[in-house]
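Appendix B. Worked example

We walk through a single record from start to finish. Start with the input: the chain for SnoaL-like domain-containing protein, Telmatospirillum siberiense, length 175.
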Amino acid sequence: METLLLTYILAKDGNRPHLLRRAFAEDARLEMVVNTGAISFPPIVRSREDIADVLVRQFGAKYENIYTFCLDRPEPDDRSDRFSCRWAVGMTEKATGVVRVGYGDYEWRFSHPAPRLVEYLRITIETMVVLPDSDGDRISDWLSGLPYPWCAAATFVKTAPGIAALRPVMDGLKG
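Next comes the structure step. The output line below is what the pipeline stores for this chain.
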């Protein structure tokens, strides 16, 4: 399970759509719940290829310096068919340098038996804040210094730069 999550993050953050073949079933389904106006995604995506297009190709065409963190880590021998965790992300917009930092929840479902692949992923985006490009270096330095991609929420919050606009994200992760 941990390997599947890691493969997804490396594919998305590194703009490597081919990696999703190792993580997602061909007929996988993605649901997006977006509770913020700061970013948008289609509500439902069907098939691994369409997921790769939305979450990797299109996302990677618009953003760079992407760091996604799972704030909970599955147990190494966890063989269950479900896993939920909170996540946090930071990135810069390629065209403008504008910075986005946010958090939400992942709900994963996995196939049984082998090969285990992601059959379903629900991504909830709770909060996404937008910061000026002048904050880009501070945010990138902070994110690149965190344990990646597994980071405790307390570490994410405790090490955050003192930028007032980050408060909604930090308050949400404390709660």
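Two observations about the output. The longest strand covers residues 118-131. The mean pLDDT is 95.
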